[in-house]
Amino acid sequence: MKIRLITPVRRGSLQGNGVTARRWARILKGLGHQLRTGGEYQSGAADVLIALHARKSHASAERFKALHPDGFLVVALTGTDVYQDLHRSRAAQDSLRLADRLVVLQPLALRAVPPPHRDKVRVIYQSATPRYEAVRTRSTHFELCVIGHLRPVKDPFRTALATRMLPEMSRIRVTHLGGALNPRMASRARAEAQRNPRYRWLGERPQAETLRRLSRSDLLVLSSRLEGGANVISEAVVAGVPVVCSRIPGTVGLLGVSYPGYFPFGDSHALAELLWRVEQDGPFRRRLVAHIRRLQPLFRPALERRAWAHLLNLVHAGKPHARRDVGGRPAVEAGAD
Q1: pLDDT in tens, 94-104
Q2: What residue ranges define each of the domains in the chain, with the CATH number in brackets?
Q3: How far is CA 125 from CA 22, 93, 172, 198, in A?
């Protein structure tokens, strides 16, 4: 089939949506489809349009349906779509109406989709491949990794603030990888690194370096206010690196309600206590590791590839909307343990 994949981010972006789009492009090409990618759809023949971001890609979705009434439109919902725009953006809401299928990255996102459109939803977990051996070398430090651009929605300095509250004897050190999207954030990161000996900010780094540092870390911390289904969690799980994260639907949908590594969003004291426990309590740390290892099959590349193949096969078959993920469980329950 002729497929157009639309992603409203700059080419080569290391932000989550850009990374997701490039992985999907590899999958779709590997399935034998003719693929063109771009920031928006203007015109041209296509059997399927995959639009990443309901609000930002609305114009492309609307134009595609106007030019190709019988064309198949897949709208992939981002975190800002699911937990923000669907509730207040008419463009995002209209993208749901136009779509033939909706893709979400974790099963709890289904609850945010208005009921009339839930039968269109399919859950496709973001896969990851272990690229580096997870070697934890002997160190005088307990290495924490924070991966994410300096954006308010990521609450990017929460881990640094929490480390200021740790006991002096703590061996925790934080390496933060991610670009600053404005000068003010960059200045704050540099000031924090000067003030806080436990924190260093390396800025935006190549993906290979970022994943190598993640694989060698003792812990990943994700402090976001909202996530659609963070790919960095997939990367950490397949690398066997335990995760501490804010208790939000986007993380609970991936890690499950029983995962013991959550803290309340924005609560520096709770995060500091949790980090200290992970550092000092060996059995607790092993519980985290055991839990994420049980989740590793969810993030196999073969599973993601099979999910896309099944979705696109429905285009040919013209089957009714499916509500089950590729594992066969109802989408709303798949991440709830």
Answers
A1: 999 999 999 99
A2: 2-127+300-333 (3.40.50.2000), 142-297 (3.40.50.2000)
A3: 15, 23, 31, 34
